[in-house]
Amino acid sequence: MKTTIELPDPLLRRVKVLAAQRDTTLRELVIEGLRHVTGEVAGDAAAAVLRPAEAAVAETGRHGLPVLRRPRSGRPRKVTREMVDRLREELAL
Questions:
Q1: What is the DSSP string of the chain?
Q2: Which of 41, 53, 66, 67 is deepest in the core (most CB within 10 A)?
């Protein structure tokens, strides 16, 4: 479904920058934000809320689970054991 929303210019600029940093679209950020606010979870698993450091290497997929990002530079990114353990605990895996 398509809809039109009005956003303040400064907010729209920040969201566009965030979308570029996450290598995603404005549409996906809006969907993620609305799911977060409404408590909706895609699939059966709880949606992962990533910290800024974690968001540099992963994103929340459509299924609500963290998915590792592909680096633009081709250099592998470091995924720490602490990050994996925290996500396992939060998702009860």
A1: --------HHHHHHHHHHHHHTT--HHHHHHHHHHHHHT--SSSSPPP---HHHHTTEEE-TTSSEEEPPPSSSPPPP--HHHHHHHHHHHT-
A2: 66
